[in-house]
Amino acid sequence: MSTEPRPKGVFCGRMFDMYACWSDGKPNSTVKVPCPWYLPWYNQVRNGFVLRECGPDGQWTNSNFSHTWRDNSQCNTDNSQQEAQKKQMLILAYFRVMYTVGYCVSLTSLSLALIILLFFRKLHCTRNYIHTNLFASFILRAVSILSRDALLSRDTPEFRDNRDILEVLSDQTVSGCRVAQVLMQYCVGANYYWLLVEGLYLHNLLGMMVFSGNRYFCGYLLIGWGTPVLFVVPWVIVRYLFENTRCWEVNEKMAHWWIIRTPILIAILVNFFIFIRIIQILVSKLRAHQMRYSDYKFRLAKSTLTLIPLLGIHEVVFAVLTEEHTDGILPNINLFFQLFFNSFQGLFVAILYCFINMEVQAEIKKKWQRWKLGMTDLDDLRNTGSNTPQVGASMPPCSQYPNPSPCHAPTHCQEDSCLSALPHPSAPPHPYTHNQDQLGARQLKTYCYIPAHTQGGGGGGGNEEKSCESCC
Question: Which segment of the chain is annotated as a signal peptide (predicted)?
Fold first, then answer.
């Protein structure tokens, strides 16, 4: 509006009166503009108008209190509607707290699960690569939604308090909010299509006699991260050209919303049919093993419940029950379950496919046992080192030890290593040979004083016993 050319002659100038944006008005005319979109009850008054009078002198008509006069009766609602609107706003505020907690918990658990799958090299395989991409899509979805809500909540108080509303309506603020909205739509679409990739991979793994996941992994990447671009970009173009209002978070023209909604519904329905096919394959395989009915039923139920969060099968119910086809309290019930499952789904997936996975638990236990063993050996070495003489200039010569041999340097133990040699059966146990086998096996590099007795192989062929002192 600010870039439009101004009319010639006498006219009432365009302005913003902290309620609505007014265009130029001709003298002795009534100017009307639609009700402001930021009203909490805008859906009830979206067809109404605000009226103002332009006087013959080109000035807007003022009221008796020297304020600019306007008729906004069409944009107001009665008290009963306002009370219902306040109640609905309170319900939505509770819903927002619920799904914010859900996304935060899912974000934490998914980040930990992603680190675990990337840290252990033995877990690197095509199946877990797909899991990591799915975890990443859940993480991006949670971050984008929380960021979008933070931007919207930051702007909402200014609208309500009528303070700095020009700043709120500035191009920078609106552009940043729209960018966050576009990124959120892409991340949500990528999440749905990575759920589809999980279904495709599992179906191919169970259905094909010979299946190599590595051959199709590039295709999986293209489906998961590339397909959302095909419908998010057209949606951005259509919104910018035909519905460039607010932060693009309200869909006034549902035809534009179907540009994003249709591909997501297709992914949900395809995943549902894949789910049915996988259940059929599992039933046939369980029957082939001739299991007892109780075990058969338990394993089938376990597999089914495990597949539901992985493939997002619960979305089929929400795809049928849309807001346009529900009335009364049913929309709030539908919205609650949809927000609950969408926000906590990442937590369920991280638990099922990482935290309680037997393969992951085995690798964590191995790492933990190795760490404990290393700490135990370190403590033993510290205790041993505190009770033994240190190697250096203060070490006593070999002649001070009992039964010394003519080995004045470690080179006398080249053939029979003092570290690996066993003590002679007739020799008394030496206090410095504690935990000798473990030290030799692990090759821990530390200073210790280890005497070892070896059988001499002298020129006389006798059984002279020699004692060699060395350092390991």
Answer: none
